[in-house]
């Protein structure tokens, strides 16, 4: 059972390559029955990203964009919202580039995409990390 902790709209502004801006991203902070924080960044009916916190690091669990909105900058916009949130909280974000739709993107393509989005590959590209405290990051 999820419990809503806080819901608000992101107040950072950045244009996307699509029809949406960072202002359209809603953030819902929830907790599971065990009390573990879960944070969902979402543009309703378009797409979203879910992260959880583990040992002081945000782990990207899920990213989905509706098919009709793909290749329009929505995923990049959602990742930027995650990075802004991580900056605000002073925490790292980690993800593993695994494609659940291999007909669209290979794991290598995803790795390159995450690198272009500001994530640094670790462990021979098996994981990627965004660290808001690293020199040269946004």
Describe the structure.
It is a single chain. The chain starts with a strand and ends in an 8-residue tail after the last strand. It has a single domain, classed as Aminopeptidase. It has helices at residues 74-89, 107-116, and strands spanning 3-9, 26-31, 37-43, 47-54, 57-65, 93-95, 120-122, 127-130. It has an 8-stranded mixed beta sheet with strand order 1-2-3-4-5-6-8-7, with helices on one face. Helices cover 19% and strands 34% of the residues. The chain is of the alpha+beta class and 138 residues long. The chain is globular and about 35 Å long.
Question: What is the CATH superfamily label?
Answer: Gcn5-related N-acetyltransferase (GNAT)
Order of H and E elements? EEEEEHEHEE
CATH class annotation: Alpha Beta
Percent of residues in beta strands: 25-35%
**How many beta-strand segments?**
8
CATH fold-level topology: Aminopeptidase
Overall outline: globular
Biggest beta sheet attributes: 8 strands, mixed
* N→C terminal distance: 35 Å
Strand order of the largest sheet: 1-2-3-4-5-6-8-7
Task: Indicate the low-confidence ranges by residue numbers.
Answer: 1-18
Instruction: State mean pLDDT (0 to 100 scale).
Output: 78
Classify the helix fraction into a percent range: 10-25%
Total number of domains = 1
| Backbone CA Rg | 14 Å
Helix count from the secondary structure assignment: 2
Structural class: alpha+beta
Write the CATH architecture name.
3-Layer(aba) Sandwich
Give keywords.
138 residues, eight-stranded mixed beta sheet, Aminopeptidase, 19% helix, alpha+beta, disordered N terminus, 8 strands
């Amino acid at each position: 059972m999820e419990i809503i902790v806080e819901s608000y709209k992101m107040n950072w502004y950045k244009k996307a390559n699509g029809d949406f801006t960072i202002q359209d991203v809603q953030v819902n902070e929830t907790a599971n029955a065990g009390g573990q924080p879960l944070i969902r960044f979402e543009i309703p009916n378009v797409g979203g990203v879910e992260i959880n916190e583990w040992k002081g690091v945000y782990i990207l669990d899920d990213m989905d964009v509706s098919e009709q909105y793909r290749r329009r900058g929505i995923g990049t916009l959602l990742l930027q919202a995650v990075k802004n949130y991580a900056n605000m909280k002073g925490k790292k974000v980690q993800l593993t580039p695994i494609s659940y739709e291999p007909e669209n993107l290979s794991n290598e393509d995803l790795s390159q995409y995450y690198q272009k989005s500001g994530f640094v590959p670790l462990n021979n590209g098996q994981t990627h990390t965004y660290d808001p405290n690293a020199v040269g990051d946004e």
